[in-house]
Design brief:
The complex is a heterodimer of chains A (about 120) and B (about 110).
Chain A lengths: L3 E4 L2 E4 L5 E7 L5 E7 L5 E9 L2 E4 L6 E3 L9 E3 L8 E8 L11 E2 L3 E5 L1
Parallel strand pairs in A: 2-11
Antiparallel strand pairs in A: 1-3, 3-8, 4-5, 4-9, 5-6, 7-8, 9-10, 9-11
Chain B lengths: L4 E3 L2 E5 L4 E6 L7 E6 L6 E6 L5 E4 L2 E5 L5 E6 L8 E7 L4 E2 L3 E6 L1
Parallel strand pairs in B: 2-11
Antiparallel strand pairs in B: 1-3, 3-8, 4-5, 4-9, 6-7, 7-8, 9-10, 9-11
The chains are: A mainly beta (about 120), B mainly beta (about 110).
Chain lengths: ~120, ~110
């Protein structure tokens, strides 16, 4: 199993450009999510999905879109990049919680994005 | 809004020393998770604590969940350079992460 894969690993954009960060998992996990990590702020949830065709907003969704057409893939789209979106982006997946406690989230290696 | 605070923010110690890092909140959580993140990689789950007062051990790491399920601690005995990394606590598992404690263990 490859686990959770993310591409690209690094990206530099100019303000106003759009792009898609790719995320895929081969563990048949129902739950997938996107986080951004900024110094001193931990990970903040952008969007998440509990299954194909179902997405919802997290804590910081503005400026980002997602879709979940298959169980495996969960791309994150930046519509019009801004310098404030410079960050490291992590995709994660897990089984849905069934009882008591939360299932382990498996994280991808991250995409380091710089917006000039 | 539920928030998680972690202390200290940074910690640099010599190999062989013991240390404790903390994760605190004013809210009650049904569970807390601890992750370790190494530079350039994603976080990796260390443990999930569910029951108030619960203590879990993972080799030299001891995790405790507060009785009121509002706080948790991670104690490392005889730290080694391989313990270096960012330690993150997460409430509810999927949504709320603390800012992390950056640990550096010097050989």
């Amino acid at each position: 199993n490859a686990g959770v894969t993310q591409t690209p690993k690094f990206q530099v954009l100019k303000t106003g450009q759009s792009m898609t960060l790719q995320c895929a998992q081969d563990m048949n996990h129902e739950y997938m999510s996107w986080y951004r990590q900024d110094p001193g702020m931990g990970l903040r949830l952008i969007h998440y999905s509990v299954g194909a065709g179902i997405t919802d907003q997290g804590e910081v969704p503005n400026g980002y879109n997602v879709s979940r057409s298959t169980t495996e893939d969960f791309p994150l789209r930046l519509l019009s990049a801004a310098p404030s979106q410079t960050s490291v982006y992590f995709c994660a997946s897990s089984y849905l919680s069934t009882s008591g406690g939360d299932n382990e989230q498996f994280f991808g290696p991250g995409t380091r994005l710089t917006v000039l | 809004t539920q928030l998680l605070e972690q202390s200290p923010q940074f910690l640099s110690i010599q190999e062989g020393e013991n240390l404790t890092v903390y994760c605190n909140s004013s809210s009650v959580f049904s569970s807390l998770q601890w992750y370790r993140q190494e530079p350039g990689e994603g976080p990796v789950l260390l443990v999930t604590v569910v029951t108030g007062g619960e203590v879990k051990k993972l080799k030299r790491l001891t995790f405790q969940f507060g009785d009121a399920r509002k706080d948790s601690s991670l104690h490392i005995t005889a730290a080694q350079p391989g313990d270096t990394g960012l330690y993150l606590c997460a409430g509810q598992g999927k949504v709320i992460f603390g800012p992390g404690t950056s640990l550096s263990v010097i050989p």
